[in-house]
Specification:
mainly beta, Pectate Lyase C-like, 29-stranded parallel β-sheet, 14-stranded parallel β-sheet, 1 helix, 1% helix, elongated, disordered N terminus
Length: 558
């Protein structure tokens, strides 16, 4: 048996992948006794692992370094049973025992070639990179089998595939590529809805989260071929009105416009360890071009479900990469939303973006609007020249930004971190933020906490509060504010869009940039706000407060 473990199965602990033909995991040593249904392709096989844990009590996958678990799906590259698919049934010292489901070649029982597994090639898919395989793959999806397997190959898709509920699509090494634009100019590659799937007499207008759900995609590559002449904008993979959608180890290449992956009115959606590479942007649409969009059902095609304003919620985006493909630029926006939910619940609730790498996005890295109880943690974001901002928080509530590294290579209109448009209870903590115009810009938002951040060489101010009521700026280290044209202060309290009132500024440290020919900041704080309190700050070599309204600088506020 080769390869690592795949997620999406009951009691699955690990997240991993099937690696076809990987010799490191071991090979089939010997067949065991046939199981009770051996005549239909079942049997027992013993595998040998290369690595064991201390004490040899569990089998370790050398691909991920994680323990093999009962229920993990594995695949054989043994010449005697190429492509055999099985699940781990027992894990013992030095070995893992696999319940063998059958070879991908030839029939193995009344259900087809593999018990419980539909191989798209057994339904007529060629995978030759030329033939339109959509119809054959759709037959496999509609076969009733819970697992749909794509052998490594390139499958041309002329019209979108419609995925029923309760499916796991596995395709490590397999690519689904849009057909020539003359055949498929603006259709999706895969979606979870269609009128054709509706039983006669049943109203096809799923609302809420009642559409086709419990779908898992593992290891597939989706190629939008967006630069092809005649290609027009469309989503590549889209899920509407459903629950429990998992996309893991997938790669999304070269979409044109719209989105590579869309979670629209989805509850419990996960994108884990995926890559979003290259993007072809239509003119003037950068702000609406998220590679991964988190959306609400306020508009859509006639067969996409009710436009009832249902927001996506409990979406987790973890360990994903957003970058160029070596030819085409990165997505304009890596992850975000641009529509405000309607209905009774106007929030995208419980979004988590953790451990992602965003390189050279041309507009914004992460864009929030109407997000609530969100955690944006441990992400690395380096924006392209001319980008509008790094992380933007608009009209959102109870948001944590922590442990992120955000860098803009030049003074940008928005800045590395922007909190605006009525947001409240936003915390920016423990981040490293470099460059940009005003590094952390809080505008028209209340009770924002900015604490424990390292702000390095902003082109203007390091931290700005404008039209902000209540909030704390504490324990930040600011290195070299005003590196381009100087600034009046490192921290600015402004009334340019409305009054800034009741801000506490404490325990911050500011150091000059020392760049020859560039004006140094005049003071630690520049303020035109009211009821501003500052104490225990270290503004070495700077004035305490520049001109403007008085700032209270007593040791403690009582």
């Amino acid at each position: 048996m080769t390869g690592d473990i795949s997620g999406g199965f009951p009691n699955q602990v690990l997240s991993g992948s099937i690696i076809q033909g990987d010799p490191l995991y071991g090979t089939i040593l010997m067949p065991g006794q046939p199981g009770p249904q051996g005549d239909t392709g079942f049997g027992w096989w013993m595998t040998s692992s290369i690595l064991q844990s201390p004490g040899n009590s569990v089998v370790i996958s050398p691909v991920t370094g994680r323990a093999v678990q009962v229920g993990d799906l594995v695949q054989s590259s043994n010449p005697g049973s190429p492509g055999a698919v099985g699940r781990v049934s027992t894990v013992a010292m030095w070995t893992a025992y696999v319940e063998y489901y059958g070879s991908i070649r030839g029939p193995a029982g009344p259900k087809g070639d593999i018990v419980g597994v539909a191989n798209v090639k057994d339904f007529g898919a060629t995978g030759d990179g030329v033939t339109d395989d959509r119809a054959s793959i759709q037959l496999a999806l509609n076969s009733g089998e819970g697992i749909v397997f794509f052998p490594a190959a390139t499958y041309i898709i002329g019209t979108q595939l419609d995925c029923p509920a309760n499916r796991t699509l596995i395709g490590y090494g397999a690519t689904l590529k849009k057909a020539d634009p003359s055949v498929a100019a603006n259709v999706a590659l895969l979606r979870n809805y269609t009128l054709a799937m509706t039983p006669p007499g049943v109203d096809m207008q799923p609302g809420g989260y009642n559409g086709n759900g419990s779908i898992t995609l593992l290891g597939l590559t989706f190629d939008g071929d967006g630069a092809a002449p005649g290609r027009s904008s469309s989503n590549m993979v889209t899920f509407n009105h459903a629950a429990d959608i998992t996309v893991r180890d997938c790669t999304f290449l070269r979409p044109r416009g719209n989105h590579a992956l869309e979670f629209n009115a989805i509850k419990r959606g996960t994108a884990d360890s995926c890559k979003f590479l290259g993007y072809i942007t239509d003119p003037g649409l950068a702000a609406q071009s998220e590679a991964l969009q988190i959306d609400c059902a306020i508009q859509g095609a006639v067969d996409s479900g009710a436009t009832d304003g249902t927001p996506s919620r409990d979406i987790h985006v973890t360990d994903c990469v957003f970058d160029t493909d070596g030819v085409n630029p990165s997505p304009p926006v890596a992850v975000g939303s641009h529509a405000i939910p309607g209905g009774l619940d106007p929030w995208y609730d419980g979004v988590v973006i953790d451990g992602c790498v965003i390189r050279s996005s041309t507009y914004r890295g992460i864009h929030m609007i109407s997000w609530r109880n969100a955690r944006i943690v441990n992400n690395q974001i380096v924006m392209a020249s001319g980008a509008n901002g790094g992380i933007t928080v608009r009209g959102s509530s109870h948001v944590l930004l922590s442990g992120c590294r955000v860098s803009l290579v030049e003074a940008a209109a928005g800045g590395p971190v922007v909190v605006s448009e009525g947001s409240d209870h936003v915390t920016v903590s423990g981040c490293q933020i470099a460059g940009g115009n005003n590094a952390i810009n809080v505008n028209t938002s209340n009770k924002t906490v900015v604490s424990g951040n390292l702000v390095y060489h902003p082109h203007g101010y390091a931290i700005v509060y404008d039209n902000a009521d209540g909030g704390v700026i504490a324990g930040n280290f600011i290195d070299g504010p005003g590196t381009t044209g100087g600034s009046a202060g490192a921290i600015r309290m402004s009334n340019s869009t409305g009054p800034t009132v009741g801000i506490s500024i404490t325990g911050n440290t500011v150091r000059k940039h020392g760049i020859s020919g560039v004006t140094e900041a005049a003071a630690g704080i520049s303020s035109s706000g009211t009821d501003i309190w500052a104490f225990a700050n270290d503004f070495l070599g700077l004035a305490n407060v520049s001109t403007g309204n008085a700032v209270n600088t007593v040791p403690n506020r009582i």
